[in-house]
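Here is one chain, start to finish.
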Amino acid sequence: MPIFDLFASFLLLFAPISPVSLFGLPGEVELSSRTISLEKRYAVKSVNDVFKDNMLLNLAYMRNEVKKTSDIDWNKIRKPFHYGLELNPDETFAYSQDVLPEYKSKINKTTNAHFNSQEGFKSDGYLVGDGVCHLASIIYWAAKDAGLDTLAPTNHDFAAIPEIPKEYGVSIYYMPGQEGSNARQNLYINNNTGEKVIFKFDFDGENLKVTVKSSRKTAFKA
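Its structure:
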């Protein structure tokens, strides 16, 4: 090896390493990611289809693709999609609108739905809106893994949720005029990271993936 090349290699070996080289440029940092199959919500296919449709309809309301029943196009709702729900620092998400006293006037975003037949949610013969607890649970699981400030007052321990560990099961309930019960069966997520976070929902036609990312404004500093 020529002397010059050897000297250059020596300098590169001991040159200071930029923090940007180590940690990356400003941008998104993945904090957590969880995936479930919407084909495994219930052992009986006809019931599973109700769960799946209710979850997808809830997501359609969340991303404002559906605002009223006349907007519902099941062929469109069941298609693969990508969607991001953003929470700025100290913003709070609640699954539905009735909240605990400590969250009054502090909710910035919800799923924009009430999970009833008037909004197009389906029944499997037992409850209207079955399946939304599964959606809330994967969101809760991803948020907890991401280190966000979360609260799910009522666990879904009365029934197992496939592919979701028991401790992350969330009970969701909404009935007009029952604000206390609604608030206790809700999900609350506060962005306590100091950076904007994004909940990314990716549906491929079968699997739903929820990824939480932090939108980093600057590169990490040494």
